[in-house]
């Protein structure tokens, strides 16, 4: 059974950023992203699955520069 991590901007959430969730994840972890605006550059350096849990227009990833996602050590990237 794969591990799951939930990312949420809500005050009770353990993980408030996608980056923090990826850093704490082990390979094969499913990272569930709740609605919110996530202002960060995301480096994916292990096999994880990113899943949005809400309307696509309510889960926003933005950054101050043009880089939002950087994949290392991976041949495929699937974002759902």
Automatic annotation (TrEMBL):
Return the InterPro entries for the record: Pectin_lyas_fold (IPR012334), Pectin_lyase_fold/virulence (IPR011050)
By what name is this protein known?
Answer: Pectinesterase
